[in-house]
Amino acid sequence: MNMELSAYKSFFYDFVQSGGSIDYFIGWFSTGSLNMKLLLDADLMQRTAELGINIVLCAYPCDNE
Fold first, then answer.
1. What is the pTM of this model?
2. Contact residues for 60 (Cβ-Cβ < 8 A; gap 6+)
3. CA atoms within 13 A on the CB side of 49
4. Which domain holds residue 49?
5. Cβ-count burial of 27 within 10 angstroms (0-12 exposed, 13-18 middle, 19+ buried)?
6. Which terminal CB of the chain, N or C, has fewer other CB atoms within 10 Å?
7. Residues 54, 56, 59: CA angle, nearest 5 degrees
8. Is 22 helix (H, G, I), strand (E, B) or coil?
9. What is the pLDDT of residues 32-58, one digit of tens each?
10. Is residue 60 a contact partner of residue 36, using CB atoms and an 8 Å limit?
11. CA quadruple 3, 6, 8, 14: dihedral sign
């Protein structure tokens, strides 16, 4: 997470408090395997939570059959 986003913390807070939603979208495309691992470390989770940012993961496994 880019630390420069911290400069907009009050904007993000006001936006969420007024009914808005902020999502950080991660699209994950996989071929040849359904085994996937994603690590969202505690520091990242804490920083995004402090900014009111949700993390959204969408996995798109390729079905080659």
1. 0.72
2. 27, 28, 29, 30
3. 7
4. 3-61
5. exposed
6. C
7. 170
8. strand
9. 766 778 888 999 899 999 999 999 998
10. no
11. positive
